[in-house]
Design brief:
alpha/beta
């Protein structure tokens, strides 16, 4: 079986730090599965070269938009390009990871999952979150998506809402299609679990992928919504010249600040 981990870069170079950290986390997990990044035309040549140096295989993709969508956030205007992962038919199975995710341990077992597989969304667990998807590339499926993209409902104005409309029976599929929550765990949930000794033991076993869905560590300072040190540790692997002791202390302090805020609410 030809396999690949796939992510997307569009809107210029803004998500380069995210892709770099994701790539380092995949390599740290010990996987030997190829890493593919779909790049839009607005991604610079310098960024493309850097990604190739870090082991990413580049695939150029055209933008894809929905005429009928009202994006929840401006950045959602271009996320439909993620659907082009279905066009990567050189691979039999793809694990599609958002550029704001981070792998905590080896997840190669996802390639044994049936098509289509996803983890529940934190806010609406009867719907899936599109930050981590297991899919079988297929041009016919992609064509069906394109035929519906302008008219299908999307509750968030982005790819997640569209895909939940395209796969409306996901929640009723056999259990193998529903990934445990640990494969797509929001960063603030990770930090909350870590702050409680009773929960921390299970976290170490079950947490596989962190999804920085709220604050992007490289966009916001300070990062006060959890799991800051995890992300920066992987980013520093790509930028060892920035890896200094005081920077680790800063990001560790960010996580502790989150713990203190939560403690104040739960006591």
């Amino acid at each position: 079986m030809k396999r690949a981990y796939v992510t997307l870069m569009c809107n210029g170079d803004a998500y380069l730090p995210g892709v770099e950290a994701l790539g380092e986390s995949l390599k740290a997990s010990g996987t030997t599965v190829p890493m593919v990044v779909m790049v839009a035309a607005d991604v610079s040549e310098a960024t493309r070269g850097r990604l190739q140096q870090q082991g990413w295989i580049l695939r150029d993709v055209e933008p894809l938009r929905s005429a009928g969508a009202a994006p929840l956030f401006p950045r959602f205007d271009t996320v439909f390009a993620k659907l082009r992962a279905w066009q990567l038919t050189e691979f039999d199975k793809v694990v599609l990871l958002d550029a704001d995710t981070l792998v905590l341990q080896n997840i190669d077992e996802l390639f044994l999952r049936p098509y289509f597989a996803a983890a529940p969304d934190f806010l609406m667990p009867d719907r899936f979150n599109s930050g981590v998807l297991v899919l079988d590339p297929c041009e016919a499926t992609f064509d069906q998506m394109v035929a519906q993209i302008d008219t299908a409902k999307t509750y968030d104005g982005g790819d997640q809402g569209f895909l939940n409309t395209f796969y409306p029976d996901w929640y009723a599929m056999p259990v193998a299609h529903r990934l445990p929550a640990g494969y797509n765990l929001m960063h603030f949930i990770v930090q909350f679990l870590r702050g409680h000794p009773v929960l921390k033991a299970s976290l170490e076993r079950e947490a596989k992928v962190i999804h920085y869905a709220i604050q992007k560590p490289w966009h916001t300072a300070p990062q006060v919504s959890g799991a800051s040190e995890d992300w920066w540790s992987m980013y520093f692997r790509a930028h060892p010249d920035l890896d200094t002791g005081w920077r680790h202390q800063v990001h560790r302090a960010e996580d502790k600040a989150f713990d203190r805020v939560i403690d104040a609410f739960v006591r």
